[in-house]
């Protein structure tokens, strides 16, 4: 399967190309599993630039991005972090889920994200000017609001922002057909179910059904699982821990498929 | 004579058509939550609630049935109007619990897909039934077996009146064919209601409408039709009145009375003391500790004498004035709103109520598991462990004597640089019941209690305030716990003593809270608002005006570096909340009983 295939949701491909040409950084907002990572990988291939991905988390420190001294027999040496590497060699540095990093970590991005395009490294005293092919891309899920984490507004305002959502029904259906290897009827059914469950977001379930989960369901179905089981295990069970909510969702799925076990 | 026949007929029909399987009966109350979620899943209208239907007169205008069986015939129908969907309290048509349950799901599915005032509801029912089966094949077997069964039951009625018989058959055929070709409105008005259908609201207008486009009108004697129609109209308009009166009309005068009284009361209180200066954190603390009591005005002493040992509201001064945003003028009304800080005195300190102990214990152990109170402190001259990064950095350093040589790290209790102010709406609407025993306000109280326990466990800084308002001249801002006070049995006592107030001048309460948060020295500030409905007050503070002022207040808070977040139990809230707080600035809790459990979770999500 071609892992680089990408179905555009709107004009994001053109926007990305334009930003790359203008040497501007990009910020992508969107819920989990809606295709952000896939998009960057695709754009990396399209533009012929290597993608350096950093998945951000709570304990991510500036050193994890920039680099640190390491030891070997002869003594210590400096090891570039993924950010520094991309800055030196060119390529896309992609900070996935940047909102998971603490605010003070992402401050190092400031000077890279504006017209200066430089990275100062305090520990070695270097000031690296970014390679012309260097591009900074960050993504996060705006569904999580956190008082302590996230990017400062001043940092955010340096980016070209793209807002992703789950693809519209038609495109999502095509993605599922391709990635999940199912026919159109099944794909369409899955999309219908997803749209119904997405209505519940914000009140009864913790997370909406993502395109990724729909693909899992499709894969299970194409492996020969009965559609009800496939949907329950890939879509429903992960959405909530509350039995009464789950029960309704199971009923919904049951109604969608003629239950072959009955 | 005719009445005699009517009674027999009535009994016969009820027995036959309402033939029920009591041991297989399914109750709405047991399925309420599931059905509400299902309604929502299928795209039902946001603001609408599923409710239990009252017995309703059947929608047979001048029907044969009505003439024969007497006009008192009533029926539990599933129906809907603009405001709600009304379902029978229980269903037992089928000899199988699963089918009876499925019957509810079926009706709810119809309700989700059918517009409340579809012009031709019968046609619409058939059409939507057809669509439902297409989309949800799982309904097919239910629908088929239900129809087959119900038709069989209806055929067994062996109706003697040939005209009635004709209508019945036409109707049954249309069900089988899923097509209403040969069925006139007249027929529909003359058959018994069909349990798989969802009926429209019964309004006088519709009654006369269906009368007008009735093709078979000429066949029937005109005169009696007219009088029947009149009767019908009268009845339905009465019903309309009834509907209104169990809503606001009856309710309002009562509460207006108490509002008037309250206003008077406030006025008289106003002249009796002047201690405006009292409303600041320092003084407050002392009041609650009771140290300053002797210095307070005679007014309090009087109160204390008057009701010894009873909880008492104590106003902290005359109040102070703040601005309000008038969106029509696009300008602030300066010093327009009077904030009246209040604190309860003579509160009996209480331990954590039994009913909450289990939950609090569980949440506490979850919080402990997260170990979020631990943080590494780096670059210490001494400590628990060597920090490898620092050590290596030292090794690579050009001039080792210039290096600070602080290699250690240790794990310390994390002092989270965060202050949280919880602002709870205790307006009149929170008096409303969730169940017969539990009111919304009770859930808010339990929520605040459990939440305080959690915050206390985390050693996070927090304050608790409640508010309600009576016009711009009286925004009651009640202090439960300020930032300085520690959490204690006394605070619990104050929470337990919270009572529903009046209206919701949200913008003012937010401004006042922001002012308090702004004085805190932490880097991060969270304003957590717990509310049960839209901003509103008795004056013009309603609708757009209230929303725009609240929005302004939120913008002001954000500018101060405060993160506002709203937790609401108002199901209709989605649209205006997104407008006020942004798409991720709020959460709607469908089941307000979950409030105590959910609040700490929301907080953790916001701050972990
Ligand atoms: N537009 C798209 N084109 C192709 N595949 C997609 C698209 N959107 C989502 N996918 C599929 O969904 C999966 C999850 O997407 P991913 O990029 O990992 O989501 P995110 O990074 O937003 O969490 C991908 O592995 C891919 O199979
Ligand atoms: Mg991703």
How many individual β-strands of chain B?
Answer: 20
Oligomeric state of the chains in view: heterodimer
Question: What is the mean pLDDT of chain A?
Answer: 88
User: In whole angstroms, how far apart are the ends of chain A?
Assistant: 36 Å
How many DSSP-defined strands of chain A?
9
Rg of chain B, alpha carbons? 32 Å
The strand order across the widest sheet of chain A is 2-5-8-1-9
Q: How does the overall form of chain A come out from the CA principal axes?
A: elongated
CATH superfamily of the largest domain in chain A: P-loop containing nucleotide triphosphate hydrolases
Kindly provide the name of the CATH class of the largest domain in chain A: Alpha Beta
Shape of chain B: elongated
Secondary-structure arrangement, i.e. CATH architecture of the largest domain in chain A: 3-Layer(aba) Sandwich
N-to-C SSE series of chain A? HEHEHEEHEHEEEHEHHHHH
SS field, number of helical segments of chain A: 11
Query: What profile does the largest beta sheet of chain A have?
Result: 5 strands, parallel
Total separate domains of chain B:
3
Largest interface: A-B, 38 and 41 residues
